[in-house]
Design goal:
This protein is α/β, with parallel strands linked by helices and 258 residues long. The protein is built from 7 helices and 13 strands. The strands form 3 sheets. A 7-stranded mixed sheet has the order 3-2-1-4-9-6-12, with helices on both faces.
């Protein structure tokens, strides 16, 4: 039986994968849950001793649940999920090794340091940014209705570690904008499916609320001009999301009856 399996979800992560795998080399086994990368990711991982499981990508929750099933099949007592652009520090490794001896807790939250454009974020929702990543595979699964920004459902007690993951989010502003733009329609559809209905003023009121939440309540101002820029951009993407949500609602009203 494996005490601890580290799992990395990948799709064309050749740039990051070697450093990520080396940062979790202390795990008993490293498993790549890969969505048919074609940039050398798999070859690099295998050369570093990682196992590879390749499955078609449906969504993040489904991919993580498939990984948990594989961990259960292999008899892993604990699973530690880490993304390719994240790194586990030696201090975090030591704390995880201690945490998995706890027989009462079935899942652990891990705080993250997010680096955006070379700046370690201090507020705005990017810190402490705790993620539930360490879990007992037989006592955890991901909510299948949350396709992104996944939510872990635990059968048991949870705790929070002190040491941090290091997350290299975005090197450039272009990367940040490209990723947020890809999420726009998906986020609007998620809101629509949950029954959220945008009022005529929502595309204006919700961005203002988002900027206030991130910049003031979550102390985005602590990050100087980077914080101001990112909070403003998140407000802009909120505007675009609610504009798309209004379009989805309009399409519902004008669709012919079944």
């Amino acid at each position: 039986m494996l005490d601890l399996m580290a799992i990395i979800l990948t799709k064309n992560e050749a740039r990051h994968i070697a450093a990520c795998i080396r940062s979790v080399s202390w795990a008993d086994q490293v498993l790549l849950s890969d969505s048919f990368s074609d940039d050398g990711t798999v070859e690099i991982a295998r050369a570093l001793g990682a196992d590879v499981l390749q499955t078609p990508f449906e969504n993040f929750a489904a991919q993580r649940n498939l990984s948990l099933e594989e961990a259960r099949r292999r008899g892993a007592r604990w699973v530690f999920f880490i993304d390719a652009d994240e790194r586990a520090t030696p201090e975090l490794a030591a704390e995880i090794r201690q945490a998995i001896q706890n027989t009462e807790v079935v899942g652990w939250w891990v705080p993250r340091y997010n680096y955006i454009m070379g700046h370690r974020m201090r507020g705005g929702g990017w810190y402490p940014d705790a993620q539930l990543r360490l879990m007992r595979p037989e006592r955890a699964h991901y909510d299948p209705t949350r396709h992104v920004h996944e939510i872990v459902l635990l059968d048991g007690a949870e705790g929070t570690l002190r040491e941090h993951l290091i997350h290299y989010n975005y090197d450039t502003l272009r990367q940040f904008r490209a990723k947020q733009s890809r999420y726009l329609l998906f986020e609007a559809r998620v809101l629509h499916e949950r029954g959220v209905r945008a009022k005529p003023w929502s595309p204006l009121s919700m961005p203002a609320r988002e900027f206030w939440r991130r910049y003031v309540q979550l102390q985005g101002y602590r990050d100087g001009w980077v914080g101001l820029l990112l909070c403003a951009l998140m407000s802009w993407y909120t505007f675009q999301t609610y504009r798309l949500l209004r379009r989805l609602q309009h399409a519902d009203r004008t669709a012919p009856p079944m």
